[in-house]
Amino acid sequence: MSEWERVGLPIDPGVVLLDIAFVPDDPSHGFLLGTRQTILETKDGGRTWFPRSIPSAEDEDFNYRFNSVSFSGKEGWIVGKPAILLHTKDAGDSWERIPLSAQLPGDMVYIQATGEQSAEMVTDEGAIYVTSNRGYNWKAAVQETVSATLNRTVSSGISGASYYTGTFNTVNRSPDGSYVAVSSRGNFFLTWEPGQVR
C-alpha cells in the first residue's frame, strides 16, 4: 500500500480546488481547477504544479470559478461560473472559448468528454446537454430541469415535492452514461440514465 504525499501548490490563500483531470494519452500531464480563476498544470504526474493562464478566459472582468475539467484523448473541456466553456484539441496547449447561450438553466457544474468533438454538460439545476460538434450546438438530454419538475409537481398539489431546496454541486457520471447528483445542501439526490425523459 502506497502512502499519500503532500504536494505544495502555488495558490493564493482561500482558493478552493474543485476538480482534477489528466490527459489519457499522457498520464503525467494534468490540470487542477478551482475558485478565483485558478488553473494549475502538471507535466510530471502531479509532483509539481504551475499556474496556467488561458487568455480567452481573462478577456473580461469576471473572476471565474472553474468547476469541472475532463479529457478524452487529447480533447479536453473546462466549465465554470459565470458561464464559461473552454475546449482544447491539443491536450491543453491551447484553449478556445466556446460561446454559451444565456438561456441555459442554471450554472455549469460538470462536464464529461465523451469522444471526438463530443461532451456532456450538467447544470446545477439538473439539466444535461450533449454536443457532438465541439460545443457549438447543444441538445437537451432531459426534458426539463429539476426545478421545473418540482415547480410543476408542487403546483399540482402532490405532497413531498417541496422538500427539495438548493442546487446540485456534486455530479458524477458512470462509464455507461448514467448520472447521480447530490444537492448542495445534502438533502436531495437524483439519478438519471440515458433514454429517461427526466
From TrEMBL:
<dbReference type="GO" id="GO:0015979">
    <property type="term" value="P:photosynthesis"/>
</dbReference>
<keyword id="KW-0602">Photosynthesis</keyword>
<protein>
    <recommendedName>
        <fullName>Photosynthesis system II assembly factor Ycf48/Hcf136-like domain-containing protein</fullName>
    </recommendedName>
</protein>
<feature type="domain" description="Photosynthesis system II assembly factor Ycf48/Hcf136-like">
    <location>
        <begin position="2"/>
        <end position="196"/>
    </location>
</feature>
<keyword id="KW-0604">Photosystem II</keyword>
<dbReference type="Pfam" id="PF14870">
    <property type="entry name" value="PSII_BNR"/>
</dbReference>
<dbReference type="InterPro" id="IPR015943">
    <property type="entry name" value="WD40/YVTN_repeat-like_dom_sf"/>
</dbReference>
<dbReference type="InterPro" id="IPR028203">
    <property type="entry name" value="PSII_CF48-like_dom"/>
</dbReference>
<dbReference type="GO" id="GO:0009523">
    <property type="term" value="C:photosystem II"/>
</dbReference>
